UniProtKB/TrEMBL annotation:
Coiled-coil region(s): 132-166
Entry's transmembrane regions: 20-44
Signal peptide positions on this chain: none
Classification of source organism: Bacteria, Pseudomonadati, Pseudomonadota, Alphaproteobacteria, Hyphomicrobiales
Protein name: OmpA-like domain-containing protein
Gene3D superfamilies reported for this sequence: 1.10.287.1490, OmpA-like domain
Source species, domain of life: Bacteria
Source organism (scientific name): Prosthecodimorpha hirschii
GO CC terms of this entry: membrane
Keyword entries, A-Z: Coiled coil, Membrane, Transmembrane, Transmembrane helix
Pfam families: OmpA (PF00691)
Length: 343
């Protein structure tokens, strides 16, 4: 039994040496980390110290610059004060110069007793003369510039006068041309009125005295029933006969009027106020009046009248000769008008 116990004791494992080695290793690591930390702190301290030193130098330089700026400002104020003082002294010297110059002129005989003062004043007077000479040179330069400007202004005024003169001449010519044009137009109008009177007189002779064909002012008026069936634009047989006579009168008029006289015959269609049938060809009186005017123009062209001398226009019910709702008024308002106009 004792032998067995001894064997059991001998078989136990001894952990202590390993633990000591581990602790030693850990201690070495900690010492290494502490060394690294201390070195880092050392270098960081040195860097911070260097930056503090540089910052201190910069602060010193800034302070020096601030002092220099203050000195510069103080020097500038002193110089400005000196300039002001010199200006005041110059004014005083100029006044004194004038006073002394008067005394010199009054006491020319006593100049020997005050030669020193006179020499000083002479020097000051020479300085003033040099200043005056420079001022006079500047004044002369300004006078030359002013003279040049005056010459430029005079040249511009001359050009403006010439332009205004040309404008006045142009206005005079335009006025003369306008007067001559008005006279020519008046002559043309009178000439056209004469031809219109002759034309209407000739139509009266051709068509005779009829109640359904008449002259109203400067228009020759056909009642619609003379030329067209009710509500239609086709010319009836009686209307063709009347339009044949009208075409002969227009052709005779074309031969009489000189070619340089501008004129046209405007054929105007008119209706009464009653609406067109909803089942008819025309949706409005306007369309009916225009179609009738075009029918007359086409018929006259077929009879040899120049298309350049004809114009068709439709007015519907919007230009009645008389207002009212009676059949007689309706009949008057339904018409074809022929008017001679200038183009």
């Amino acid at each position: 039994m004792s032998l067995a116990r001894g064997r059991r004791r001998d078989t136990r494992i001894d952990y202590w040496p390993g633990f000591v080695d581990a602790m030693a290793t850990l201690l070495l690591v900690i010492i290494f980390l502490l060394s690294v930390f201390m070195l880092s702190q050392f270098f960081l301290t040195r860097e911070i110290t260097g930056k503090d030193t540089a910052l201190s130098r910069l602060n010193s330089q800034i302070a020096e610059l601030t002092e220099l700026l203050a000195l510069e400002r103080a020097g500038k104020r002193e110089v400005e004060d000196q300039v002001g003082t010199l200006r005041s002294s110059l004014t005083a010297v100029e006044g004194e110069k004038g006073r002394l110059q008067g005394l010199i002129e009054q006491q020319a005989g006593a100049a020997s007793s005050s030669s020193g003062a006179v020499e000083t004043l002479g020097t000051q007077l020479d300085d003033e003369k040099r200043v005056s000479a420079r001022a006079l040179a500047q004044v002369e330069l300004l006078n030359q510039q002013i003279s040049a400007l005056r010459r430029q202004i005079a040249a511009l005024e001359t050009a403006l006068d010439a332009s205004e003169s040309r404008d006045r001449e142009s206005q005079t010519k335009i006025s003369d041309l306008g007067k001559r044009l008005n006279v020519a137009l008046a002559q043309r109008v009178q000439e056209l009125q004469r031809y219109r009177s002759d034309f209407f007189g000739r139509l009266r002779e051709i068509l005779g005295s009829r109640s359904d064909i008449r002259v109203v002012g400067d228009r020759f008026v056909f009642q619609s029933e003379v030329l067209f069936p009710v509500g239609q634009e086709t010319i009836n047989d009686a209307g063709r006969a009347d339009l044949d006579k009208l075409a002969l009168a227009i052709l005779e008029l074309e031969r009489q009027i000189p070619t340089e006289v501008a004129w046209t015959l405007r054929v105007d269609g008119h209706t009464d106020v009653r609406p067109t049938s909803s089942t008819g060809r025309f949706r409005s009186n306007w369309e009916l009046s225009a179609a009738r005017a075009i029918s007359v123009v086409r018929y006259l062209i077929d009879r040899g009248v120049s298309p350049k001398r004809l114009v068709a226009a439709g007015f519907g019910e919007y230009q009645p000769l008389e207002e009212g709702t009676s059949e007689e008024i309706y009949a008057k308002n339904r018409r074809i008008e022929i008017r001679m106009t200038d183009r």
